[in-house]
Design brief:
With 119 residues, this protein is mostly helical. The protein has four helices and no strands. The protein has a domain of 80 residues. The radius of gyration is 13 Å and the shape is globular.
Length: 119
Amino acid sequence: MTFLTAGPRYNLEQICAVTYLANYGMQIAIGNNLANSPWGAASEPAREAYRHGVLFAITHQPAPAEQHAEWLRYHTARRAQHPNLVPWDDLPVNERDKDAVFLAVVNQLAGGAPPAGGG
């Protein structure tokens, strides 16, 4: 399998693995009982959805609210069930923080500019 090289040192799969772990840490920090399994144990559909989010972040450099809107669009189209499938303004602040951390990690590892603006 060939991976897209997203930055000077890290490929897409590596960026996904690190951001997935950062998200796991955020879930633990906020007491979220939906904590992820390790990246290597995640289902292929879950990994594919995560790759989509990372690629969106790399190619669009969105604000956290825009990243969430794309996540919402992607999962709604697949009829997913998740408590965070709500508009940005309806997310609790700690869930918004997860989006900001996700983008910060992606941007650092992909070598991109920081995301534009807040949410």
